[in-house]
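>> received
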Amino acid sequence: MSSERERTYHHGDLRRAILTAALDVIAAEGPAALSLRDLARRAGVSHAAPAHHFKDRTGLLTAVAAEGYALFAEALAGAPDLRERGVAYVRFAATHPAHFQVMFQPDLHRADDPDLLAARARATEALRAGVADLPPTGRGEDDRLAGVAAWSLAHGFATLLLSGNLPDALEGRDPVAAFRSLTGLIFTPESGGGD
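>> returned
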């Protein structure tokens, strides 16, 4: 067997290599820049090899979103309260920008994918648990709206951070620390949002 053929057909963990290459492309150029053929070239495999694992571009983006939600759920699980879940949210976006970009664009992935649904459900439950832990005075009359308010704050900050819109406002401060300070303007010890 030739070395070209070995390079093309024998790969230790092709699925992981394609996902890693996809994350690099998304982080640098956005999800629109993804091409299975380009990813195959980057991984040093035949142009048909990625389709074996992901079927098509949508399948690949679905895998990225599912992996992102699984990592996101893990990040949220260790947070003791809603405020720290927001901090974990922002930290996740800052450390996993490619996952973050894909996760919240449902038009990019298959909404009925079982892995995606399960991972998203775990992340959603972790976020809702933070709202449920608030005392009634801290969440108002509607838990869902309280959840949307908290989500909007964390997601809005994370999106502004990733899109490069916060450098002047942050004035060199660590984004996670700045977000924690920001939540202090909204959440008080009486509302259950931390100290």
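>> The two ends are 65 Å apart (CA to CA).
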